[in-house]
Amino acid sequence: MIDCQNLWKIYGPSKALHINRQLPVADNIASIEREGGFVALADIDLSVKKGEVLVIMGLSGSGKSTLLRCLTRLVEPTLGELRFDSQDLRSMRAKSLQELRRNHMSMVFQNFALLPHRTVLGNVELPLEIQGVRAAERRQKALEIIGVVGLAGKEDHYPIELSGGQQQRVGIARSLSTNPSLWLLDEPFSALDPLIREEMQDEVLRLQKSLSKTVIFVTHDFNEAARVGDRIVLLRNGQIVQVGKPADLILRPADGYVSAFTASAERSRILTAENFMQAGDPESFDQKLNAGSTLREVAQAFQAGANVIAFNNAAGGTVGFMRRQDIGHALTAAMTA
């Protein structure tokens, strides 16, 4: 759905905006900085598949939010190619780009950005109102999505009357009211307490699955990234350090920066049976689980009495197994990876 190649975002005087493709990235960055420029993003190559949840993460100032905004041209890239569903976004005129954003993209922000003088229904109706949807139709669509996010009965409440989690649900409902194909979430839950945050992560996953959305999710929290993301893009100083599944970053880190970033990961909730199972069919087994089951789920199955667990792939075929004695070795390996 989204594809970018050699994407750069540079701030500074015009003489600092030149890129020499024959030079290494580090040399170009040094040259730009000598000319008084600042490189926010450097040489980004990235694709987002339809139906995927891609998480962008990194430390503060690593370029997470800048990349998210460059992918939609809310921030104008300095250089590079950018496509949405094969359309060249960088050559798109302002009116066409506005229509594309209005009808196919939607964003959820950290601070909720609700209008205090509007009710829940009024806030959720707003994007439809901007689109020019007639009152009866937009009310119907807004009420439907309010029900989907679990706020039925709160339609006439004002934001001040809602909890933080409920306010964020309003923001989510508003962002989904136009049925966008690309859903962008910029650290949407960082202001929430841990229990509500986990609840909202579950809500994003439920909505993404039920509504078949492509999601780009920005966070600085690896456990959150691993919980919601199919793949993670880890940034450092505006450059991609590693892209991969959460387990890839834990088990096969590209460098010490990645290792440090994943050091506090809840590994038993992230790493799965497929990372540690023995390949093949067991002679006999007590229980079958999906190969994507977490080590915590596998350990719970053994605690419940299973001695041998077989693991299936998405098609239902057996692809591996574990014996009771294997789970201890797997958990130890996971903790020391």
Query: Could you tell me the mean pLDDT?
Result: 92
Helix content: 25-40%
* Fraction of residues in β-strands: 15-25%
- Provide a count of the helices: 13
Strand order of the largest sheet: 6-7-8-3-9-10
Give a count of the beta strands, DSSP E runs of length 2 or more: 14
Overall 3D form? globular
Low-confidence stretches: none
Radius of gyration: 23 Å
> What name is given to the CATH topology of the largest domain?
Rossmann fold
Q: Which structural class do the helices and strands define?
A: alpha/beta
The CATH class designation of the largest domain is Alpha Beta
Distance between the termini: 34 Å
Q: Tell me about the biggest sheet?
A: 6 strands, mixed
> What order do the SSEs take from the amino end to the carboxyl end, as H and E?
EHEEHEEHEHHHEHEHEEHHHEEHEEH
What does this structure look like?
This protein has 337 residues and is α/β, with parallel strands linked by helices. The longest helix has 18 residues, at 194-211. α5 (135-148) crosses α6. It has 2 domains: 49-77 and 92-267, P-loop containing nucleotide triphosphate hydrolases (Rossmann fold, 3-Layer(aba) Sandwich), CATH 3.40.50.300; 268-336, Alpha-Beta Complex (CBS domain Like), CATH 3.90.1280. A 6-stranded mixed β-sheet has the order 6-7-8-3-9-10, with helices on both faces. 39% of the residues lie in helices and 23% in strands. α7 (194-211) links the parallel β7 and β8 (214-219).
